[in-house]
Design brief:
Elements: E1 6-11, E2 14-19, E3 26-27, H1 29-43, E4 50-55, E5 63-64, H2 66-70, H3 74-100, E6 105-106, E7 115-117
Parallel strand pairs: 2-4, 3-5
Antiparallel strand pairs: 1-2, 4-7, 6-7
Helix pairs in contact: 1-3
């Protein structure tokens, strides 16, 4: 499935989500919205047991796209900040939920390989 900046595939109960926003995968409002939509969609799939969050290119994610953030008016800036916070909350909720279910979070071999939840 491809949304533009975010793609995912599902193989053997594992969803692999990839961010693709060159050159350093910064999180602008479009990337954030697509990630949020992807997490919402995958959460509805009871067959998924693990999620790998990764990115294409040389960096996993550079963080918030400050340049695009500065170009927004106050209302859009607040909306963007809330969207980033919402996306982070969704990721944190899933990590905590899995930990409460007795599952472990494994660290990736390197920082560019992503986050692997089992």
């Amino acid at each position: 499935m491809s949304r533009g900046y975010v793609t995912y595939v599902i193989e053997e109960n594992i969803a692999v989500i990839a961010i693709d926003n060159p050159p350093v995968n910064s999180l602008n409002s479009k990337v954030t919205r697509e990630l949020s939509q992807t997490f919402d969609e995958l959460k509805l799939n009871d067959e998924i047991r693990s999620v790998v969050l990764t990115a294409k290119g040389k960096a996993f994610a550079a963080g918030v796209d400050i340049k695009s953030f500065l170009e927004l008016d106050r209302n859009k800036g607040e909306y963007y900040a809330l969207a980033v916070t919402d996306m982070q909350r969704k990721i944190e909720e899933e990590v905590v939920a899995e930990a409460l279910r007795g599952r472990e979070m494994e660290r990736p071999i390197s920082e560019t390989e992503g986050l692997f939840l089992t």
